[in-house]
Amino acid sequence: MTEAPFVPREKLFKQQQYFQSLTKHTFLKGRYDVITSVAIPLALAGTSLFMIGRGVYNMSHGIGKKE
């Protein structure tokens, strides 16, 4: 007994030709790869910079200091 393939052969060849014709980097070729490879790290970096800046400001002005 043989299993039926998950994807028809023609569709697989079409997807292979599409991905091989793209000139983007390998990790950005998928549909949602830009979100996971670029947007999430940029959001994390931006948030961390904001929180570091707020902490420096609070320390320099003595805000939130326990007496």
Automatic annotation (TrEMBL):
Kindly indicate whether the keyword Nucleotide-binding belongs to this entry.
no
- Keywords linked to the UniProt accession: Membrane, Mitochondrion, Mitochondrion inner membrane, Transmembrane, Transmembrane helix
**InterPro entries annotated for this entry?**
COX7a
Q: Membrane-spanning residues where?
A: 34-57
Localization, UniProt? Mitochondrion inner membrane
Task: List, alphabetically, the GO terms of the cellular component aspect.
Answer: mitochondrial inner membrane
Predominant subcellular localization, coarse grouping: mitochondrion
Q: What is this protein called?
A: COX VIIa-like protein
